[in-house]
Amino acid sequence: MTRPPKRPPQRRPKRAPLDGARLTAYDVLDGVSAREAYANLLLPQLLRERHLDPRDAAFATQLAYGALRAQGTLDAVLSRLVDRPLADLDRRVLDLLRLGAYQVLDLRVPAHAAVATTVDLTRAIVGTGASGLVNAVLRKVATGGDRAAWLEQLGADGDRRLALATDHPEWIVSAWRDALGAEEELEPALLADDAAPEVHLVARHVDRAALAEESGGTPGPWSPYAVRLGGGDPGRLPSVRAGTAAVQDEGSQLAALLLARAPLEGPDQRWLDVCAGPGGKAGLLAAVRPAGVHLTAADRAPHRAELVRGALSGEDDVEVLVADGREPPWAPGSFDRVLLDAPCTGLGALRRRPEVRWRRTPEDVGPLVELQTALLDSALSSVRPGGVVAYVTCSPHAAETVAVADAAAARDDVEVLPVAPLFGEVPGIERGPYGQLWPHRHGTDAMFMALLRRTR
């Protein structure tokens, strides 16, 4: 009996290499969901390591930030198409579904390309079984149309529709309405959170015009030390490498300048930055203070205090302390000016940290308000009679801004000093006697500023 001839082994077709930009974007989503990483820190690291060309790097950035920002809307669509709660999915599969759905709903990526590349990623990262689910769900997403079509299918109205259309949780929509006090500005303010932010530089010990020429940027409209960049890696600039300039949002610069510009009664010799990490505002204060002013910068976290030391490297007459502002090692009334950049929800920087809008919850606000109140009470005790405290937060939320400042102002030894007259060049900054910056008005983070004088 003769055996049939053996068939030659069939070679599997070679798979196309994974798309580097999409894989990088997925790794950012995975870092955020698995390790609570911050996208604005993780993505630049990955781009440096992987040497993507500028076009792919730009697409990876758009895809990672966009999918993180749109998570709520993407999940609302996906939950219609998956036969189990999204929380029951493999975390990696959910991130991949979000990545593919974002391309279909919000980017001009052909549906077949978005589906095929996401299926390839799924097969490589999770396995063949999961790729079938991803393929089926994303095809249904594409069949449903773009974002506008899906908003109609979801049938949302009122704040729910606005939340889905602008990629915000409903509680933030409500908080922004309260903070703005102007319904016609609500949607532009929310949409401004979704725009890619410019990179801002601060000219600490270099002429601003020279920094603008060196960087190819333009002088900022509000801070006399600000330069706004159109693109590029600021870390490669000689002035940034030398420490004479740094990356700092123009709104953050104004918050530091508020303290320096405040009218003062009596001597002006000792300044304090009580929650100084990572050191951006302390660095600017050190640069603009008059000769003979001693600057103390404190932070309760040793690693953040170390960052402050780096920011103040080369500065004379400064000291950096590891200290909790609620239980300070210095005596009451030790300082003439005190800056309290209080820990907060960070909702004023949603452009730079798109995932924060989904990571924060309304329940986070109360404990932070307790901390802010305690820190502000201690800051007022740390300043001498006649001295000033600048209370600032990177948030417009009423509970951690106006409410905290109003509570301090109710003390019989505290006077509120209006913020707007100190920034006559900045329109639309008034929030009662306080100051509020907005991305849609000023192109900055949404910094809140209050100025309080201790009267006795």
From TrEMBL:
UniProt KW keywords: Methyltransferase, RNA-binding, S-adenosyl-L-methionine, Transferase
Active site, per annotation: 394
Coiled-coil positions: none
Lineage: Bacteria, Bacillati, Actinomycetota, Actinomycetes, Geodermatophilales
Protein name from the UniProt record: 16S rRNA (Cytosine967-C5)-methyltransferase
BP terms from Gene Ontology: regulation of DNA-templated transcription; RNA methylation
Annotated Pfam families: Methyltr_RsmB-F (PF01189), NusB (PF01029)
InterPro entries per the UniProt record, alphabetical: MeTrfase_RsmB-F_NOP2_cat, MeTrfase_RsmB-F_NOP2_dom, NusB-like_sf, NusB_RsmB_TIM44, RCMT, RsmB/NOL1/NOP2-like_CS, SAM-dependent_MTases_sf
Family the UniProt entry places it in: Belongs to the class I-like SAM-binding methyltransferase superfamily. RsmB/NOP family.
One Gene Ontology term of the molecular function aspect: RNA methyltransferase activity
Biological role: May act as RNA methyltransferase.
Superkingdom field: Bacteria
Positions contributing to S-adenosyl-L-methionine binding: 275-281, 299, 324, 341
SAM-dependent MTase RsmB/NOP-type domain sequence ranges: 172-455
